[in-house]
Specification:
The structure holds four protein chains of four kinds.
Chain B (H helix, E strand, L loop, with lengths): L1 H14 L1 H17 L10 H13 L5 E7 L5 H17 L3 E6 L3 H12 L1 H4 L8 E6 L3 H10 L1 H4 L13 H5 L8 E6 L3 H14 L3 E5 L4 H9 L5 E4 H12 L4 H36 L4
Parallel strand pairs in B: 1-2, 1-4, 2-3, 4-5, 5-6
Helix pairs in contact in B: 1-13, 2-13, 4-12, 7-10, 12-13
Chain C lengths: L3 H21 L3 H36 L1 H7 L4 H9 L12 H32 L8 H20 L16 H42 L5 H22 L1
Helix pairs in contact in C: 1-2, 1-8, 2-3, 4-5, 6-7
Chain D lengths: L1 H25 L4 H44 L4 H27 L11 H20 L1 H12 L5 H17 L1 H6 L3 H10 L1 H25 L12
Helix pairs in contact in D: 2-3, 3-4, 6-8, 8-9
Classes of the chains: A alpha/beta, B alpha/beta, C mainly alpha, D mainly alpha.
Chain lengths: 294, 286, 242, 229
Amino acid sequence: MKTARGLLIPVVVIALVAILSGVGWALRIQLYSPKTPFSAFLILVGLLTAGYFFMTEARAGKSVPVRRIPAFEAVEEAVARSVEMGRPVHMTFGFGTISSSMAPQFIAGLGVLSHVARLCGKYGAKLVATLGVPEAIATTEEIIREGYYSAGRPELFDPTYNVRYLTDQQFAYASAVQATLIRENVGANIVVGPFWAESLIFMEAGNMVNAFQIAGTARETQIPFFVLVADYSFIGEEIFAAGALASGDKETLASIRGQDVGKLLTIVLVILGVLTLLAGLKLVDALNWAWKVG
Amino acid sequence: MSEMSALSSLEKILGSKELLYTLLLLSVILPILHPLGIPVEISRRTIDVYEYIETNLRPGCRVYIEVYYEVAARGELEPNLIALTKHLFDRGCRIVYGSLSAFGVIAFSLFKSMAADVLEGKEYGRDYVYLGYIAGGEAATASLARSIKGTISVDNYGNRLEDLPLMKEVDKATDFDLVVIVSSGTDIFAYYVRQWHTPYGVPLLFACLSVIAPSIEPFVGAKQAVGMLVGQRSAAEYEVLVGRLGLGIASMDAQSTSHMLIVAFIVIGNAIYWRRRISSKRGGSR
Amino acid sequence: MISWDVLGAWLCAAMVVWIYSFAYRDNALYKLAEHMFVGTAAGYSIALALDSLNRVVVSPAVRSPGTFWTTSWHYLVPVALGILLFAKYSRKYYWLARYAVAVNIAVGSGLALRTVPIANIVRQITATILPLWGSDPVKVLNNWILVLITLGGLTYFLFTIFPRVAEGARPSPTYRVYRSLYYIGIYGMMVGFGALFANTIMTRVGFLISIYLIYIQPEAWAATVAAILAAIAIILGILRKR
Amino acid sequence: MSLVLRKYVPQTIVSIIIVLTVVFYYFYVSKEIAGTFTTADKALSDWVVIIMSFALIVGGIDILRFHLARIRREGMGQAPFSTVTIALLVLMVVFALHGWYLSYADPAAGIAITTQPQFRWLYLNVYAPADAAVYSILVFYIASASYRAFRVRNPMALLLLITALIVVFGNTTIGGLIWPGFLPLRDWIMTVPNTAAFRPITIGAGLGVIILGLRLLTWREISWMGRRE
């Protein structure tokens, strides 16, 4: 019954799009932009509705199995180790703003931060979060406060120590972060978010103090540095899954399932496209087709 | 046992970053001072660019060059810019330079002092003009394509554009026979493709850092650009082609020595690792 | 004798050496350079902010008030929203800042939702649909590699939908296909990572050469002095720790 | 009521803007409407620029507060350094404001905010070299990172090392002396396996954007709001 209700909105939206397109095509109306491939719109609507469906399912109480992500499991070890050594934990999530396409990675970083903050509260570790995004200062403070308070250690929360907005200029931020890593002598260095050339600076500075390093980004050009240098790394999309896992919110986790549907759809389309090439059909043309009337 | 201790002390020496960093500095600077002269094989891609300019640009042609790189990218892009400028001047072209970023202004002034021999005998205002920093990103790119004089009124040095002879001849995208984009960022290439090439069909030529080459490769593949020069390697090749050996070719030697140094460290590191691993397996538990 | 230009060249050389000295060890001169850098960077971002405000709002409003008030009056809305950002310092009215952040994140997300389905998904799919047979064996092999690694990588990133195998049961064919694609994906990606890592060395060495270029100037002696100072600072730092 | 103003209205604004920007991109009603929305688009991007500018100014104030707090907390060890940061920050802003003033008071001089002479001096001699130095310090880091990272511990690491070596030899002229085949092999690696390896990551990043859009639309994403309630 509940599943049926969850299906309602997706079905309505898809039916609406189908009816609209059908009527538009029958009446020869220029309904969609002639410049963009129509398939892009269909994929967007399909994924949004699929994700919405999984989210309503999760609200109804259905849980989602998740593949093991070793780097995520290592976060707890990293925090515990640095407490043993009496050193603080460092976390940073880049200077990519929330008003660009880097927003998902940034928010994944915030998700991991909330996990780290809770663990720091649990083990009584000092946490230093450095950031290069002015809009996120308040959010970061709030997440760390929540982490310490929920574990019953409000005395560890000191915003001027825990949260350090350095500057939004890339290398000034990087130079200040590497100095922070050394001077605070951090025991664990957790770096998750959108990163550019500064990725390796953080990794090497962390290595200078022999910190336990966990790093991840979905920015293609920087993944190699994290994979090769960090102790554990999130490769590409794993940071979204980790962010969702870390947030502890069932619906957020369920929305990750929407991403999986997208990947399955891509796999199916590629295989279908390759197979139809055998028959001489060109799926590529269909995918590039834009709505043009007349 | 003594072998093991020798190995571990060797590992300690190699692992100390001070040694590696010092050797690295030397391996980069010494070859620039005394080039080794390792021959450079010229790639097809660079020859294509050279031949395009040779066949399509006649004396009197007008070229626009976007100078968009920061000081840190000079080593890779400045030799490209100098070699291209030399080639274009040799072909009798006249050049309008512009920058969509504030750091382009610094890059251009440094370029001028490094390329004094290329610019010698060329008159500012008649043979080349530098527009300076033009603010506004992609919107400014579009506006420049419509009208340069409608976008800005003075050049970098405060001269009014109407007073410069070269600027009397050119104003919009279609007035140029070639547009060269020398950039350390990826977005700029897309701006010019969208605002200059797609609407006006102006031929574009790219010069980029080697790290970002894969991301702009699609434009060249789709024939939206006539070719591209990638980093110091292309600069070295182009210097050979235009016959002005400069920093590009010297840097290739520095690249070789520094890369070989890193390879040597990797190989020795692995050798020690495996030597220890094998002997520790033989000797039982460590 | 000592002009601002010479002093500038000196400072320029010193900044580079002091920042490089960090690669060897943290020291007081690096700390100084870092704090100078952060200060100028923060000032520079504020200046850039003022510059764009000037370009978008102030300059049109002052230079051609007529057109501004008829066509661009709506720019006063984001100005008001921007001023609301200062509300975050208030204990009571901190939520007013959300209105500005809301517009920012919504526009960013909306703009990304337009281009992403085309650029990141449709274009990538169409680029992967390649003929897996033909007369040219090299091309066919390349296409096989491209398609298999792409599919493998996608399989690797499946987090919640994947075949599982029960304890002790024989793995199903679907599971076998999943596992092999998974490994093709991760190994393929490793090849890409290794290649990109090695390729980056070249650009980084290029940057070092750019820095070196700063020093072929008349004021090269300044660099030497700065380097000696940095060396002294490093040694002093080590001595103090002991 | 207060919760409506504090929470629901901002979230509604987010949903409305996202829906409008997406809908008017994919749908096409008439030429006039498409034209209007192109202008509206431009205006909306300018809106973001304006708001971002204010965010940067607020960020500058935060840096000031951070360093003042450090002076208070950490005492003499930190105070001189933080003072340098604060002084330079204030100086840069003062020079920028002076340039801004001049651009209106004396337009003929051609001085604007970023071209004010003292501002430019600081930018050229402090900011620019520091920026380039931090960027190029990576050459040291990439060398020491490769020394540690390319240790052959397992088959995967061997694969990594082999590709890396091929690319290194292909990139340098000395590689061409050893074996001319390195260059074509490197080009093949960069165009075939490398392209394939990064394609799934690109697709994944795109899917992440779409799903984040969904969470924003359905009000499930609240991390941008700062304080929770």
